[in-house]
Structures are given as structure tokens and as C-alpha cells.
Amino acid sequence: MSFFISDAYAQAAGGAAAQNPLISFLPLIILFGIFYFMLIRPQMKRAKEHRSMVAALAKGDEVVTNGGLAGRVDELGDSFVTLEIAPGVKVKLQKQAISQVLPKGTLKSS
């Protein structure tokens, strides 16, 4: 049967240079560093600023929610806030739903 198919023989192994394991993982380490400084660190900073803003809420602050509702803080609880969005109209929502605190008098001017 060897008449139609020639036999294959392995060549002698050449002297392969041993690579430093640090060099082989260097691109992965650099990629993680880029992700950390471009994505993870700024997100952690924004989350920390949001937590401090929510912790500093007080009665009478004018805020905007994630849904776009603007109102004045009427009551504060541990995890919920009551907003007065119009005279006599109050809405209860989670503290984490507040996206920003407006300067005083913003709601009167609009």
C-alpha cells in the first residue's frame, strides 16, 4: 500500500528557545491595565460621587430622577424619598433613582 501513499517521517526537533512566561502574559496584563484606567476606575469614581450625593440629600432639595421627574424632597427615609413634583402631588421613589441635585430655585424659574 505504500506504493500509492508515501510514508511520513517526523523531522528532528530543532532547539526551540524557551520564552519567559512574563513576556507571554504581557499583552494580557497591558490590556487589563487599559481596561482598569479607561473603564473600571472612572465608573467606581462616578458611583462614589453618586453615593455621597444621595447621602447628602436633605428636605427641601430640588432633584431630578433617572426618569426625568423634577421635584422637591418632602420626606427622607432609609431607602425611599418622597418628592413633591407639583403642589399636592407626591411621589415615593428609591434614593438611588435620584440622578442629580439641582441648584435652589430651579423649579420656581421653570
From TrEMBL:
InterPro entries: Preprotein_translocase_YajC. This is Sec translocon accessory complex subunit YajC. Belongs to the YajC family. The chain crosses the membrane at residues 22-40. SMART domains: YajC (SM01323). The keyword Cell membrane applies. GO terms for cellular component: plasma membrane. The keyword Translocase does not apply. It comes from the Bacteria. One of its GO terms (biological process) is protein transport. It is found in: Cell membrane. It is a single-pass membrane protein. Keywords: Cell membrane, Membrane, Protein transport, Translocation, Transmembrane, Transmembrane helix, Transport. It comes from Mizugakiibacter sediminis. Its main location: membrane.
